[in-house]
Design goal:
The structure is a single chain. The protein is an alpha/beta fold. The protein contains 6 helices and 11 strands. The strands form 2 sheets. Strands 1, 2, 3, 4, 5, 6, 7, 8 and 9 form a 9-stranded mixed sheet that branches. Strands 10-11 form a two-stranded antiparallel ribbon. Helix 4 crosses helix 5.
């Protein structure tokens, strides 16, 4: 596996780049619903659905705007080899042939600091947004069983959709925060059920045009200001019908 290789300068370089990238590709990124209450004495295990290549960027934005924790994220080894700079931001790899190694590494991350925000995609691969069942893998359960201590476990629903804008909008919705250890964790079937309900809730909120907090928004194009050009005949105003 490829471990995270965090560098203090990486975020300074990456943040303006990725914010600009998201602004160019999305009309807006919106956080719906209420912010969850996160217990500060426990690390945070964030568990979103995974339906677009952009999901890791949305998690990066959420951490900068909402959590302000030390971020880590598990990514497929193929993708991390393609984008090795992400390791400088706290991304590490997982490969089907050696999943346990990555899960053990995840446990060590949780053990390192209570201020950790670790993102795991329980589906384990990109899956269409409306695919049911979600087919959660067992990785989160394994991590909790080996970690042994309490964590904040926070489901997150993500959906990108075309609405009334030329570019797509992204919508994010948190479930409530759950504080679990391996003894009281209800299991992966329960977690998959919570995420399924959360995705349906998010879909309904989008249909009802709910808007709460805009995390990032594409700048509106400037109005076409008339200008005067000098010609032999009297002044002609161009740029305006």
């Amino acid at each position: 596996m490829i471990p995270a290789k965090k560098s203090w300068w990486a975020d300074l370089v990456f943040r303006p780049y990725v914010y600009g990238l998201m602004k160019r590709n999305f009309a807006s990124i919106n956080l719906l619903g209420k912010l969850p209450e996160i217990e500060p004495e426990y690390p945070l295990l964030l568990v979103p659905n995974h339906s677009t290549w952009w999901d890791g960027f949305f998690v990066y934005l959420l951490n900068n705007r909402v959590f302000h924790r030390e971020p880590y994220l598990m990514m497929s080894e193929e993708q991390l080899r393609r984008y090795p700079f992400f390791a400088r931001l706290g991304v590490y790899s997982v490969a089907q042939k050696n999943v346990i190694s990555s899960l053990k590494y995840s446990v060590r991350i949780l053990e390192s600091d209570q201020n950790i925000m670790l993102c795991i995609f329980p589906q384990g691969e990109l899956t269409l947004w409306d695919a049911r069942p979600l087919n959660y893998k067992r990785g989160v359960e394994w991590i909790l069983s080996q970690y042994g201590e309490r964590v904040n476990l926070l489901p997150l629903a993500i959906k990108t959709a075309f609405t009334d804008q030329k570019k797509p909008e992204t919508f994010l919705l948190f479930d409530q925060n759950y504080v679990f250890d391996q003894v009281i964790f209800p299991g992966m079937d329960w977690l998959e059920g919570r995420e399924t309900d959360l995705l349906e809730d998010l879909h309904e909120r989008i249909l009802h045009k709910e808007r709460e907090q805009v995390l990032l928004q594409n700048k509106m194009p400037k109005k076409n200001t008339p200008r005067i050009e000098k010609v032999d005949s009297p002044a002609v105003i161009v740029g305006k019908q």
